[in-house]
Amino acid sequence: MDLQLSDDQRALRSGMRDLLGAVFDRDRLRAAVERGGGVDRGLWRELGAAGLFALRLPEEAGGVGLGLPEAVLLFEEAGRALLPGPLVATHLAAGLVKGAAEGEAVVTAAEGGDRPVADLVGADAVLVAGGAGVVAGEELKALVAGARPVRSMDPLTPLHRVEARRRAEGAFAPLHRVEEHPAGAGPGEAYPGALRHAGALLTAAEQLGSAARTTEMAVQHAGAREQFGSLIGSFQAVKHLCADMLTRTEPARSALYAAALTGDPVEIAAAKLLADEAAVRNARDCLQIHGGMGFTWEADVHLHLKRAWLRAARWLTAAEAEELLAADLGPVQPLYSGSAAGGGRAGEAEGAG
Amino acid sequence: MDLVYTEAEEEFRGRLREWLAAVLPGLPPKPSPDDWPARRAHDTSWQRMLYDAGYAGLHWPVDAGGRGATPTQHLIFLEETEKAGAPYVGANFVGLLHAGPTIAAEGTAEQRARWLPPVLRGDEIWCQGFSEPEAGSDLAALRTRAVRDGDDYVVSGQKIWTSHAEVADWCELLVRTDPGAPKHRGISWLAMPMDAPGITVRPLRTLAGSTEFAEVFLDEVRVPVRNRVGAENDGWRVTMVTLSFERGTAFVGEVVACRRTLAAVAAEARRNGRWDDAVLRRRLGRLNAEFRALWRLTQGNVGESERTGGVPGIGGSVFKLRYSGLRQELYEAAAEALGAGGAFDLDREWALDRLSSLSYTIAAGTSQIQRNIVAERILGLPKGR
After folding, report:
1. With contact defined as beta carbons under 8 Å apart, do B56 and B121 qualify?
2. A253 or B247, which is more confident?
3. DSSP B307-373
4. Reduced to 3 states, what is the DSSP secondary structure of residue A147?
5. Beta strands in A154-307 (DSSP E)
6. ipTM more than 0.85?
7. A window 211-270, beta carbon within 8 A of B
8. Cα torsion for A218, A223, A227, A232, to the nearest 10°?
9. Would you call A308 helix, strand, or coil by DSSP?
10. Do A4 and B307 touch (CB under 8 A)?
11. Which of A260-274, B68-82, B213-227 has the weakest average pLDDT?
């Protein structure tokens, strides 16, 4: 048992960090914000060439043949860099939609309910929850024609609402059945089961990357900004905010890596719940530490917060995750009655002084 | 990165399970929390059983009388004993978790030979003389003085929050041996026999109603110089070794216990109908996520300490900070699950635990101190006020 990263995993992660530093630095981030988001096809191909989408496809299917733990490390980096676009959906579609694995096709996901669809315009295909399938071609055109744009809170993520009426009329049919796809097992298992779990896990990885990044940003700012003649990072009130950020991030990281190893839906729910909370609350604390500057458009903090809020509503919400985790609390095994008796541990805090 | 245990580790787990299944049904029930002599007898006889079966001092070095087990084996031991509901380390915890490992790491061969075997056998138990009324979280502000007189130190002062002092044989004692030195220097670490003349133990009543800890008054107590562990005035460094053990593995079994309690709370809520309350149900679901994450964090920390040679790192502060708060949240949720009919009844399981959980964010370094440690030593923020 060793939850530390292997040398190969470290290399994979630093390779992704280097790549993103080269193809999506802060200038490109801010340019994308000015553009109003949307998918950059050139960037998409570079990510495809780097193996982000084909990572978990078997080598015989043209993929990289790695697993969820490695995918989690790459999506963590994507989250740190605030990389825009339907990364998770395209990754899930590798092997299901032609060109997705290579980054030639852009694939987004319609998760159902009243959740808006991200990056719908310009997508080549849509993974559809509940229908176990993919919408493309003429069906996609009809879907887009009936969709209503949402004025998106996240300037990097265009959103559309897909009308329930059109869904009822069968706009999503006929579907290209997921099961018929040659990729077969692996990522080609029936959506929304395995794909939904993987979607939640990879989204949690993006959240974790964002949570770690906003912690760094807060610590950097607190170590550079002076007020009342001192660095604000020397004030306990500020220090404690930073400490809480790390204390949220690290348990979430442990839960995430373990969930990536086991693939267990309950562990994935735990990881998503804690990573969502870490991303959202860390971004808020980071904004607080940046003071007035944090409330401006120029600071990147709001971009992290808005994306974190959006991701928290994707694949598995807090309410859904909590219900799943509650259902997991099953009956308890009978135990040695001596220590299980009431107050058995009373006052035995490890606190001798 | 994997969660796979080796064949040897699984074999170790299997043997341990068999042993626990054989011995636990024959154990007497746990004595009342207020009956200290009975508690001591119960806890030390369990320690003797562990010793005889070869499980005492599992993670201690072999040359200190331990078994030299890997951190992972130690983790398995703590996990399985807690899952099986075996007795807690109890009255012996300072000796086994703090003083013992400190003496093993810093003591002379003679000191190890004198103090370690009785701790492992359960013959002698230790208490901790660190905290003082005027010092508390500012541990280095301690005032208890030791003045050299021939082959003895003459110790005078007062300690507080000294758990198990009434029944302890030895005390790991911090004293000021150089009052003129800066406060972190001039401190020494002594092993004080609790039957020495001049020691007065006065039990304190906790808010849970129990006499869990005590004040200890020291009036010209003579402690032989040979009982000093580490160099004179180098006690702060030795203390940091002790505290790293305190924050490192001391809570591993408790996380398992909390997960077990959480499942029991859910079962109680299902039984009494409170499970239908979505707010409570979701709260328990969230705690499930938190304690699962703490368990994974523990596994990660153990893997890391295996790499670094067994000494726990400062990441223990992240764990302690998170855990102590969550333990309190767990018993708040338990009270809600019990409802007004059970939450205020001290005979009910969890009512007393709810009270005792309040010490967790204070003992072993307050949450505020832990936040400073995380901010300064892990995140690298500047020292300040």
Report:
1. yes
2. A253
3. HTTS---TTHHHHHHHHHHHHHHHHHHHHHHH-HHHHT-TTSTTHHHHHHGGGTTTTTS-HHHHHHH
4. strand
5. 159-162, 176-177, 226-227, 230-231
6. yes
7. 215, 219, 222-223, 230-231, 233-236, 238-240, 242-244, 246-247, 250-252, 254-255, 257-258, 261-262, 266-267, 269-270
8. 60
9. helix
10. yes
11. B68-82
Which residues are within 8 A (CB) of A71 and not within 5 positions of it... i.e. 6 or more apart?
A: A55, A56, A91, A202, A205, A260
| C-alpha closest to that of B189 among B150, B151, B142 | B142
- Cα angle vertex A293, ends A288, A298, to 5°? 120
Distance, CA of A107 to CA of A127 (rounded, Å) = 7
Q: Burial, A209: exposed, middle or buried (Cβ in 10 Å; 0-12, 13-18, 19+)?
A: buried
d(Cα A294, Cα A283) in Å, to the nearest integer?
A: 10
Q: How many CB pairs under 8 A join A and B?
A: 286
Contact flag B9-A273 (C-beta cutoff 8 Å): no
CA distance A271 to B288: 11
Could you give phi then psi for residue B179, rounded to 5 degrees? -65, -20
DSSP three-state, residue B201: strand
Residue A306 is predicted with a pLDDT of 98
CA of residue A282 relative to chain centroid, distance: 15
Task: Quote the tokens at residue B234.
Answer: 């180098």
Q: Which residue of B has its CA nearest to A338?
A: B29
Count Cβ atoms within 10 A of the Cβ of residue B109 and give its class: 0-12 exposed, 13-18 middle, 19 or more buried. Answer: exposed
Residues of A with Cβ-Cβ distance to B286 under 8 angstroms: 273, 322, 325
The listed range with the strongest mean pLDDT (A168-182, A329-343, B81-95, B235-249) is B81-95
Give me Rg for the CA atoms of chain B.
21
Min Cα distance B9 → chain A (Å) is 9
Q: With a cut of 50, say whether residue A189 has pLDDT above it.
A: no
Question: Which chain B residues are Cβ-neighbours of A264 within 8 angstroms?
Answer: none
pTM: 0.91
Catalytic residue flag (residue B246): yes
What value does the mean pLDDT take over residues A156-161?
Answer: 96
Query: Which pLDDT value is given to residue B59?
Result: 81
User: Of the residues B82, B212, B246, B336, which is catalytic?
Assistant: B246
Location of structure tokens 């787990």: B13
Choose the mutation target among B13, B30, B40, B205 for the interface with A, i.e. most A CBs under 10 Å. B30
Peptide bond into A174 cis (omega under 30): yes
Where does the pLDDT of residue A1 fall: very low under 50, low under 70, confident under 90, or very high at 90 and above? Answer: confident
Closest to A88 (Cα-Cα) out of A38, A52, A124, A57: A52
Q: What is the pLDDT of residues B293-341, one digit of tens each?
A: 999 999 988 888 777 765 556 678 899 999 999 999 999 999 999 999 8
pLDDT of A253 above 80: yes
Element (H, E) at A157: none
* Contact between residue B149 and residue B142 where contact means Cβ atoms under 8 Å apart: no
A114 — pLDDT class (breaks 50, 70, 90): confident
Closest CB to A336: pick one of B27, B210, B300: B27
Question: What 3-state class would DSSP assign to A135?
Answer: strand
Which residues from chain A sit within 8 angstroms of residue B263, using beta carbons?
A: 329-332
Average pLDDT over every residue of B219-234: 97
Range among A66-75, A163-172, B207-216 rated most confident:
A66-75
**Residue at token pair 């800890």:** B213
Judged against a pLDDT cut of 80, whether residue B241 lies above it is answered with: no
Over the stretch B115-161, which tens digit does the pLDDT of each residue have? 999 999 999 999 999 999 988 888 899 999 999 999 999 999 999 99
Q: Which two tokens stand for residue A315?
A: 């694949």
With H, G, I as helix, E, B as strand and everything else as coil, classify residue B181: coil
